[in-house]
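User
Please review the sequence:
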Amino acid sequence: MTGSLGISTVRSQETEGIVGKNEWLFNKYEQLRSTDAAQTAVSIELIGRFNKVLKANGVSLALTMVPLKMRIYSEHLPDSVKFTDYMAGNYDQIGKALQAAGVTVIDLNTPFMSSPKRNSDTPLFFRLDSHWNLTGSMLAAETIKAGIDANKVLKGALDATPEAVYKISFGKRKLPSKGRNLLTVLPRNSGPFAPEQFTQVSVTRAQPFSDDGRSPIGITVSGSSSSKDWTGFVDGLRYVLQRDILNVSVTGDIGPWVGMETYLQSPAFQANGPKLLIWEWPEQLMHAPPDNKYRDARYVSNNTEWLLRASAWVQSTCKPSTVTASLARVGLAANPANMKGKDLVTGPTNDNEFVEIMFDKPLEQLDYLVARAVTAGSKTLILEGTGQGIATRRFTMNVPDDDAAHNVKSPLPSNGRGFTKVRVYPGKSDSFAIKDVQVCRQPEDILK
């Protein structure tokens, strides 16, 4: 509850939250261990390979990490929590390793640690929440702008995007803060804690977007909950950069790998990829590559398969494979009325109907399927790969449920020689079409 005497915690069986000194709260998952180093190295290697793919396809990546609240405010940690040397040096170690892998990193830890506002009455993080506040998010935005301006490649990408005038205004009085997520995960009977207040900041576009269509947005932020609209971070970037920015950030339970892949396969990327991609990470998630077993099972993936899927979505042109694809005259294609040359166009479909794609020889690891598909009324495609002597495997792909044709790109990894056919199930749809089916090839060095 909230009252004039302070804020009391909601009862919770969890003990994710830690009560520190001076009413500062922390999240236990920021307590990193040296045993995390091996998995962190896996994440760094994947990001390095992914960055090469982006660069080859005209996208400049800037990676930044939100530093640990436990580091920025270590003096407020309880005596029972030890801030280790590993935690102290983790940010710098990751940054150096990413840079060695060819990734441009914009350091937020150094300016956060040295900021005169760190211990002011307007600190950089909420006391009662795990996120940075408006002061911290604006410092992050200003630091990223400086990092872009100082980097020739990033500045070139920024300059290639259209300008847009954004204005900033500040409220005249302080309001109660909504940032208090740690209150719900504290031990019972913790608190009460004095509420936090903040000065409202508003960033607005000087000229509203016209109804007859927007100019292409050349900058995208793919981040965590620290980049969600309520934190003010992306609005801060819009103001300091004076650019339109697409925000595709996701919450921590989904995570950066799924968040990025979801964006890559979306029409926003496929129809108009950005010049500049800002990937914001919580520092503590770097030790969790796609196959991290503690993640929700829906969001777990083989590390190599994540890279191959992400790479397929990024490819702006098709490097033809030596494998040829064609539609088999079975399923929906058995009806001649559905065939328009080599393409299939049909009306409503049900869960059992399919189109079968044949390959003239088994797919290899670097091959991936490409097509254009209309899936009106259906949000999911199921691809079922089969082949002689290998296990059948199903792949689920989320798709737009409108009546426009969208890109479909999918590696089809198997545990054997490679699939020789794949059935595509559109599910219940109002109409379905699959066109321009072909097999393309990943960069030959992507896994080397």
